[in-house]
């Protein structure tokens, strides 16, 4: 690979290494069918996509699917990017959306290989089960109304083994010091959506 001028190699705001001009040129060349330009884009941004997928605590197979799907989305939209110089930011946003979609899909219950052993504890009343189901559905609906970064942040913080603030900051491109305040604002917006949903349900009733 030929040497790249020093002025085109600097850290960009979206986490890519080369300058926006370099990225825009590679996008245009790749859109015209230049395989080498596509390979250079992959080499430039592949690590960032894997970091985002790992930051969402996906298993290796799911993370690989997210990365592959993100590149597929770029291939489908190469000629339609409004700002080819910001292809890194476009890829990051697409990867985060794919991570959230994967997380929502993975929450579906999977059948256990063997039936659980009988427990002596009494089953909860049917009314309790309905209330829990309604609560969970309302929470999912409210969460989906939030901006994608709020969704990603809250989902990452409520996992069984939440990532460190350093990992969250790297995945979401956020300064570590802003994660706590952003979490507070996201929770406030979530509470607002839950309250608004309750009001709408009362009006419908």
Question: What does this molecule look like?
Answer:
- Helix content is 67%, strand content 0%.
- The protein has helices spanning 20-31, 35-55, 60-77, 87-106, 126-144, 148-157, 165-172, 176-204.
- The radius of gyration is 21 Å and the shape is elongated.
Brief sketch in words of this structure:
By secondary structure, the chain is mainly alpha-helical. The protein is built from eight helices and no strands. The chain is elongated and about 55 Å long.
Jot down its keywords.
mainly alpha, 67% helix, 205 residues, disordered N terminus, elongated, single chain
Topology (elements, then pairings):
Layout lengths: L19 H12 L3 H21 L4 H18 L9 H20 L19 H19 L3 H10 L7 H8 L3 H29 L1
Helix pairs in contact: 1-2, 2-3, 2-4, 2-7, 3-4, 4-6, 5-8, 6-8
